[in-house]
Amino acid sequence: MRLIASLTSPYARKVRIVLAEKKLDYKLELDDPWSATPAVLAHNPLGKVPCLLLEGGDALYDSRVIVEYVDTLSPLGRLIPERGRERAEVRTWEALADGLLDAAVGARMEMIWPARPEAQRCQPWIDRQLGKIDVSLAAMADHLGDKPWFSGLHLSLADIAVGCALGYLDFRYPAVVWRDRHPALARLMDKLSQRPSFQQTLPPTA
């Protein structure tokens, strides 16, 4: 398998962590989806990463589709329950974590995208996205509480997705002091940060 990704994409990081947790081999192909001619465009019409290329040339996207497929490739450490309420719960928390990322990425692009002049930047829209981050963090923290993991007694995709969202806030929004306000999430992130899969996929600092 070949994974087209960016080292700074939190969605791609989620896929890379799942691949590492499942102990599956793949070739990482780096691409910049914001360039004029991203390589991923040849495989994903949306021009977004991550994109997983399978033998035979078939392509899978987006991250939620990829991680669901990858989780079926090995019985080792299933990250998504096979059926029922537990499965829906894990996928719901993944959806909320991805939604937080959508808001964070959207707000950041509104603030820094070079093609938009400063006078055209919309602060109320940015504030609306930042508000989504705040309420999402509160919902995550309230659900986690004193539990060791988001769903069940073991690591699941819900924890990985939330960890990637929190990691992105650390990376792009260091002024958001979520640890002070949500100690339950801080405990979870401390635990996730000790896993090799999270350590090996940290975004570059420069």
UniProtKB/TrEMBL annotation:
InterPro entries: Glutathione-S-Trfase_C-like, Glutathione-S-Trfase_C_sf, Glutathione_S-Trfase, Glutathione_S-Trfase_N, GST_Omega/HSP26, Thioredoxin-like_sf. GO terms for molecular function: transferase activity. Residues 83-206 form the GST C-terminal domain. SUPFAM superfamilies: GST C-terminal domain-like (SSF47616), Thioredoxin-like (SSF52833). It holds the Pfam family GST_C_2. Residues 1-78 form the GST N-terminal domain. Keywords: Transferase. GO terms for cellular component: cytoplasm. This is Glutathione S-transferase.
